[in-house]
Amino acid sequence: MTKVSRNARRILMASGCLVLASTTALAGDFDPRQGDVKTLVDEVSAQGVDRAWLERAMNEASFSQGVLDAMSGAVERHLTWHEYRDIFLGEERVAKGVRFIDQHREAFERAQREYQVPPEIIAAILGVETRYGEVTGDHRVLDSLSTLAFHHGTRGGFFRGELAAFLEIAYEQDVDPGDLEGSYAGAMGYPQFIPTSYRAYAVDFDGDGTRNLWTDPVDAIGSVGNYFSEHRWQGDAPIYLDAEGPTEPPSGIEFNQAQKPYVSVSELQDAGITPERALTPDTRVIPLALELADGDYRYRLGLDNFYVITRYNHSYLYAMAVTELAEAIAKARGESKSWFESTAIESEEHP
C-alpha cells in the first residue's frame, strides 16, 4: 500500500487530486519503522511496552515548528529579581494558595507528616508552576516530545529519553498519549513534572491505584512532597538568612549559583557581607544578590533547603520566588514558620 506524507497529502488536496483511503495510507511525521524513531520504538518495546501500541502512538505524533520556536526563545532576556518577583507574588496568587491549602488540607497535612515538607512550600511550587493547576499547558505532549527528540539540534538525546519515559507512563496507566497536554517542553500536570521525574517521583497519594498528576491535586501534592524529600529537604529548617553588604556585589564572590552551598561565611565576611544572625565561620551558604527596582541589592544566604528548591528548577530566581510566595501564603494564613524565620543555625555538613 502506498504511503503519502502529510505534506504531500496537503499538496494533492490543494491541487484538487483525490487521495483514496482504499489505496493509500497516511504516514505520520515520525515513522516508527524507520531510522531513529524505529530505534526508540525498539528500546521502549524492550521495556515491556506493546510494539503495536507504540507504533500507533508514533504514527499519531505530529511535528510542531511552534515547539522548536518556543524552545529557541526560551532563553529570555535577563530578568532582575524585582521583575521576576512581580510575576509570581501578586495578591491573587497568594489568596488562591491559601484557598488551595484549605481545600486540600488533609492531603497537605499528610504530606507534611510523611515528607516533612510544609504545606506552603508545596502550594508555592504548584502556584508558580501552574497557578494551582489552572494553567498546565496546551501542547500535546506526544507532539512536543517527538519534535524535540528528533529535531532539536543539541538536546535530542535528552528529549528522546523523556519521550521514552512518557510512552511508558501512558502505556502503564492505560491512557491515550495523544490526549495528554502539557508545556512545549513536555512538562505535565499540576506540578509540571517532566516524564522522567514523573516516573521517578510521582506517587498515588489518594490510593486510587493511579499516579495522576494531570487532574488529581492530591496526587500532585504528595508527589511534590516526595520530590523534595528525595532531594533531602530538611524539615522546618530555614531556607535562607538575610545579610548586610555593600552597595554593589563585591568582586571575587560568585553570586546566585544554583549549586550546593559553596561559599563559607568567613569568605563572605571578608568581602563585606555579614549575616544578620550568627553563623559559625565555616558554614557554607549560597550567596544571593537580589537586584531591587531602585537598583539597590538585597543580600541573602541560601541554605540547604534553598538548594533543594533549585533541584526543581535550576534558577535562583525561581527558588526565591517559590520561597517568598510560600512565606506570603503562610503569613496570609496567620502562620509563623521556622523555615522562613531568620533563626540562628549551627554549622553543619553539606552532603
Keywords:
351 residues; Helicase, Ruva Protein, domain 3; two-stranded parallel ribbon; Lysozyme; EC 4.2.2.-; disordered C terminus; lyase; 15 helices; five-stranded antiparallel sheet; 9% strand; 3 domains; MltB-like; Lytic_transglycosylase_MltB; alpha+beta; Lytic murein transglycosylase MltB; 9 strands
What does this structure look like?
The protein has 351 residues and is an alpha+beta fold. It folds into three domains: 1-30, no CATH class; 31-78 and 119-230, Orthogonal Bundle (Helicase, Ruva Protein, domain 3); 240-332, Lysozyme. It has 15 helices and nine strands. Strand 8 (284-291) and strand 9 form a beta hairpin. The radius of gyration is 24 Å and the shape is globular. The protein starts with a strand and ends in a 19-residue tail after the last helix. Residues 37-327 form the Transglycosylase SLT domain. Keywords: Lyase, Signal. This is Lytic murein transglycosylase MltB. One of its GO terms (biological process) is peptidoglycan catabolic process.
